[in-house]
Amino acid sequence: MDVVRIDLHTHSTVSDGTDDPTELVAVAAAAGLGVVALTDHDTTAGWRPAAEALPPGMRLVPGAELSCVSDDGRGGRVSVHLLAYLFDPDAPAIVAEQRRLREQRRSRLRAIADRMAADGLPVDADEILGSLGPDAPAGRPHLAQALVRAGLCDTVDEAFASYLATGRGYSVPRRDTPVEHAIDMIAEAGGVTVLAHPFAFQRGPTVTAEVVETLARRGLTGVEVDHPNHDARTRDELRALAKDLGLVRTGSSDYHGTNKSIRIGQEVTPPEEFDALVAQATGTDVVVGG
Ligand code: AMP
Ligand code: FE
Ligand code: FE
Ligand code: ZN
Fold it and tell me: How far is the CA of 39 from the centre of ligand 3 (A)?
């Protein structure tokens, strides 16, 4: 029998991807995946439609990518993303924190768009937010799409490299969740956590290995080793670190539909690592499909 192909990090239109949850499941099936996790930023709203669209034999791992902040191990603070899986989406602490993050994302998008508009760029915060639905986790990809629609750039990638690049004056910080709190909150809700693209330095400053060790002691379950933003050396380094610390190592595409050039299933998680991850979740009743 073929080895099951497992992709544990994808985004739908519920956050900043371009496939709706139903399409995403279909694309995952067409790519030959047996397991796919839906990990929209700061929301679980896609879980139900994705589960309803599952073809027979395919498994959905309900998840989310939480916007967090961490010590960087060099005396500063840095933004980190925490993948959370198999937790109770109705846990009051999680519901409240995700709502706070989504509200903050919307006011941040408005602040950036207003600054752009003040500089004469054809960007309208009301129009962008209005097109997203009242409770959507707004993000810079939505601004990037608006810049593409306005004809200022050809692609979302180009918008990130130009207007949205740090130092251009269009970055507004978020007040994200301290990563230790997020790890505790997800564990209390029966779930497991994986540090997303920990050493993806092209995306901005990263944490040191010592920070990963501290988080492992706190209860972190795994690290994302195989990610499109990690080069071969970084992967080797992370794989060794995961082994030392007893962390599960995942591999995932971080698929965003046409907002990025990455294909779903481009990176995968070894089945034995997936089993080790699921074994540490206590809220097993939230696993969908089978
Ligand atoms: P935000 O959540 O608003 O801070 O925006 C970050 C999001 O933008 C992340 O989900 C990334 O996947 C996406 N992103 C970052 N850099 C790029 C890029 N160069 N091209 C496309 N998407 C990007
Ligand atoms: Fe994203
Ligand atoms: Fe991320
Ligand atoms: Zn992601």
Answer: 9
